[in-house]
Design brief:
Chain lengths: ~350, ~350, ~350, ~350, ~350
């Protein structure tokens, strides 16, 4: 949620809603067309050169870090990004969406990281703005998740060098969505572990693990379902910035989001089943405990009563005088015990 | 719910359905255009001047307090508000909605306050009616939630002074919707607290807190989902009172309502998970208690039986004559106890 | 459900499916236009005069009691009501619906009464058939719920006297729907009572009250959701029997049905939460009981074992000879007891 | 489910998927128009005369028993029924559906019987194929559920004799759907019985009865929801085999299917509530049992400890020498017991 | 899930995501028209002849095994299959879908096998690509599930020899979907077994069997619901590769997928009911155990107290001197026991 949201500020005011940080914003610039390719990295944000529109090449600015509001403002102005779009770029709580502006298309989506230590899905916001011949990608964290894609451009592998900014946008989204599958795989493994633990030793269940997995699934679903809708709108856009041949690729990544969404639903159903299994295992264990308590009680209480009986100090208790009284009592107690055991056996408590 | 609803009264009859109060209705009047700005406050309702339509300025009447039916009637007449719209203004149970009338647009929505002491979301109804050059805003409570907006108008910050009544309407809605996020944040914090409490000390759970949080979420959702629909209708309205450039802003606030609605769903799922966690913690605690009881019983009942056995008064109990009888019994009892403990250990009850 | 449904009878056969009764059908006739007004009541059904169509006035026949099939038949014929509509009029299990016939519109809906003694929502079927200049209203029970409306017509209050049969139909529906709100209020109060009872004394819960409230909510929802759909169809009808100016009023009552439907959903969610609260309270109480049992057992079983130990009759039990043996045992027992209490305290069982 | 389904057979292959039987297929033939009426019954399937198309009359072949594949084939050919339709006729697991073929309309639906002994809803598949001047009705079981309809045709009651094959089809469907209501009534009665049993004596609940009722409701819903869709398609068909005046009747039966579907939903919600009630009653009973156990234990364990105390054989136990020791102990024990009872009273355990 | 998914690879890269295997890919080639039929089998993938387009015959390549990427590439090129389609062919986690490409139609679906030993549904991915005069079918496993279909083609049974590649595609899908029904049957049988086990001996329930059955149902549903959507798109395709007469057959198989989807929903509801039944049986059993424990305790604790009482060593306990003291105590104990039993009987605990 948006912990630092502005109330009463005019719309379009840039307010960074993420964690404050002192790290410099990193900007990687790539330009390419079928024949040429050039790449530069800017560590210090103020050195960013002025954007020059050039129709014959594709220019990609990959901005990592959103907290430098001044830089954001400068970029927004030099590419003519709508102020509402920039407001969304710096709002890390923005839900995935697609908006078509006059001079470009804005797409917001979430990238996932899975932290295996705490079994937690970590989310960062990625925003894309692409127009004629340029793509701006903004990401919250500084890890360079688009490196494989830049390598592909550099190596000229695949068809990316022959295509425009719409295809590059697709390629960026594709990288992000591909990462969803590995998160889904991780959650699936966790579910299998939980199932094994419940079946083998219900007490060994890590408290709250089921709940954490549920929260992870909710996070993934909350990101992927709006993205699916956003991609659907993107595909149906009739903008001439999008080449018809790109549509098949967009459909493909759209299909992947459907698959991820379906997987989260499936995993959620399975998790729901595991929770039921867990509850019934706890109840079953309680039954076991109670059965044991009852058996112990039911065997010893009657025979203890007998020992109490013959521990009384009445002057006249004829049995106490019997020569074999003590042995007869033992026989009686063994018979009672065996009878109880037989009865519990028949009741399948043993 | 509408505790004081009229049955059998003709439609359009103004019936105030909120809490009766003696406080004067407060009216703040603002008029502005790009160059000029004037603001007045009326504490006593009867001094309200007669509305004069003026196309070159935007006039905003902010009415706080709905209980003065006569005043409401007078306002309705001077601005030509439809009687059904006015009936809705004074009905504090009105669900959020949008209606287009001949001479203006009516929007009803809910504003939230979060009372941190009782952790309760408090709701008030806000109604907006805007036409050519004027906006009427009606709110139930007297706290001045639109002050930041009036300040922005006064300071001429943002683009509001260059725009018409449609943009002002948007800005008012935006202020209300922005406040939703902080309520969502508060509920989220409460959920985190509940989760911590359940994990650490399940008995410390404040009875009913889960239910109260659920009710808060229901309240928010009940307000935001119809508002989302109302904004959707508002956007699709083809009225010439709405400038095309305002649409992007309306879409933005519409998007915020979607985000709030999705957040309530998410929080609800998480809350549902917490409830399951809570129930399983209670069951687990019961298991623990029962295990302890069973262990105590299973250890002491057999050895107590032995003490009873040798407390009997039979004339012939050979063991009682043994020189080391007492010590042998102690050995037997220690063996039994250790055996039990080993067995419970193996069963992981200890 | 339809306990007395006909199987194999031709469609359009009138079969009264409600409770048989000997009470006479009561018919109240009102005719009015802007200037004139006349009202008559027929206690004995056979005296009903023949309907004479008159375009300059609105004629309203309010029929209370549906069991007199012959009378129904006569009415159907004199107004040209379709036989399938009449079949629906006398079927008290008919779900709310709207059908447009050639010479009129048929609307079926449910009116509610709340019986505070048994906290039960009671339902009756109301059918409306209106055509050019006339409205027929059929209701199952004899209580005169439309009296306030007839008074309004008589007193010429509101705009009803200037309008046609479509507006009268709206007004009748409005009266019925307004009554829904008070039922919702009653159910809301019941929920608050249940919540208080659960929090204060879970055992004082009236068995089955939660279930009864749920059934009440189901009843209301089952009636209001189809009515909402029916009104939606009614509004979209392009019949020239409906004056365009009536639409705003129909929309208003349609909006009320949405509000009632949303309220039932909300209350249902709250009730679901109460049920969870109830179950967890029962479990918590069980935990309390078990804790108490376990504490009592854990304290007394060990010290009772000690008393048993020194109640044995071995010839050699050295401790028994100790001068302070008895007092030392007391010390031991007090230490054991205090140790247990301290341990339970630490475990927060006390 | 389809226990005998063919895999790999070409589509359109007739495979009877129901129970094998030796009973002869029964065919009842009726032909009628406004003036004439003739009816014949064929017990032995091979005697069936060749169909002769006759536009001035309606011909109805009612075939009871689907296992005679050769007969089915012969009928299919003589009426030109599409092979896929015939495949569906003999598949008793076919879900309700509507298909329009070139020379006729095919409708598949389910008829219910309620077996009061086992409280089980029994389902049979009914298929209808009607074309110009003829209706074929196929039913799985041999009981003659359409007799009342044939009697109506014979007695010329209602408007059926003046109408065509479309109206006859409607009338057949109407008979089947009317039977649904009595099944719903039966299930409703069962629910009331279950509720009474739970409230009065939770142990008397017949194991599995709730589950069986749930399965019955699932069966009904599974049959009626697809039928509703099928009828909706049927109504919207623009075939000239369907007279416009029949539409009002089809809408009526369509409305009945909606009502049945809504009733199953309602009953299911009620049943869900009963299940919750049942579970809470079981828990409450457990609480009662535990309270009783705890009270017995808490009263007797302390006073038994006292008796053990004074049963010890220490040489020095001063109290044992007291003249009134025994009586003082009795007083102590009575005080302890009364104290315990008072405490339980205050805790509302008694 | 896709355990081996590529991240950062260009779209259209063929990555086999299934289990690695050394088995040779098996290819069965069939060509036929109304008069001719020829069939060949290729065990070693490299011998596959070059495809020659021939409009007068239908050519069917059935490829079993997807792991030979080079072969896949070769096939893709010789038939002009789009690279995104081929990427989907070798992705065994691909969800069922339908895509229309310029030179053919791609359909992905899942085939099921039921392993009776572990009661697990096993899934394999089947992909179909058909164009003018040819059908490519790709399946993950090597078992020849389409043999019956090839036999039908060889034997010229049914209408398949007179039809084109669209009908063959339908026939292949039909074979796969027919197999769904037997899986549904198996799951249904498992549910009946589970119900029997719960009713007869709740402890005999195989741990996790309910969960496994739920997972099976989720698997089936996850495969059949997207397939239903894919078939719906297939039917609505206006491609001239699909003969209008094929539509009735596609609708038939589409209807089957609806039936399977509805059955999974039904079975899931039934399974949900079984789970509730299971939980209530566990609780009931617990109640039984507790009742027994309580009865044993309540009978023996009071009479044991009495024996303790008269085992005390007070010097003055008058009752101990009574001649019939012992016998009187026995009478008292029998009376207490009978009283307890009567009381438990009345409470229906016995």
């Amino acid at each position: 949620m948006s912990k630092k949201r502005k109330i009463g500020l005019p719309p379009g005011t840039l307010v960074y809603t993420g964690e404050k940080t002192d790290i410099d914003v990193k900007i990687t610039y790539v330009e390419y067309n079928e024949g040429n390719h050039r790449s530069e990295t800017y560590e210090r944000s103020d050195r960013l050169p002025i954007h020059q529109s050039n129709e014959s090449i594709v220019q990609w600015y990959d901005i990592r870090g959103l907290h430098d509001i001044n830089l954001m403002q400068k970029i927004a102005e030099s590419f003519g990004v709508h102020s509402l779009a920039m407001e969304d770029v710096v709002d890390v709580h923005k839900r995935p969406s697609y908006t078509e502006y006059k001079n470009g298309h804005f797409i917001s989506l979430k990238a996932f990281d899975y932290d295996p230590k705490v079994k937690e899905v970590q989310t960062q916001t990625i925003s894309l703005f692409f127009g004629k011949g340029f793509v701006l990608s903004f990401q919250e964290h500084e890890d360079d998740i688009f490196k494989p894609l830049r390598d592909r451009i550099a190596n000229s592998s695949g068809r990316i060098r022959q295509r425009g900014s719409d295809y590059l946008t697709y390629a960026v989204i594709d990288v992000v969505v591909d990462r969803y599958f590995s998160v889904i795989d991780k959650i699936e493994e966790t579910l299998e572990e939980i199932e094994d633990t419940i079946s083998n030793d219900v007490d060994a269940i890590n408290k709250g693990e089921i709940q954490e997995t549920k929260v992870n699934l909710i996070k993934v679903r909350k990101s992927v379902v709006p993205l699916r809708e956003a991609l659907n709108q993107f595909i149906r856009s009739e903008s001439n910035l999008i080449d018809p041949s790109t549509e098949a690729y967009l459909r493909d990544v759209y299909d992947h989001t459907i698959q991820v969404a379906e997987s989260t639903d499936t995993l959620r159903d399975i998790l729901g089943g595991l929770q039921d299994l867990y509850l019934s295992e706890i109840s079953l264990k309680m039954n076991k405990i109670m059965q044991f308590l009852t058996i112990v009680t039911a065997i010893f209480v009657p025979i203890s009563f007998l020992t109490g009986l013959y521990g009384m100090n009445f002057e006249v208790i004829p049995e106490l005088k019997y020569r074999n009284g003590y042995y007869m009592l033992w026989v009686a107690m063994v018979v009672i015990t065996l009878g109880m055991l037989w009865w519990f056996k028949r009741k399948k408590w043993l």
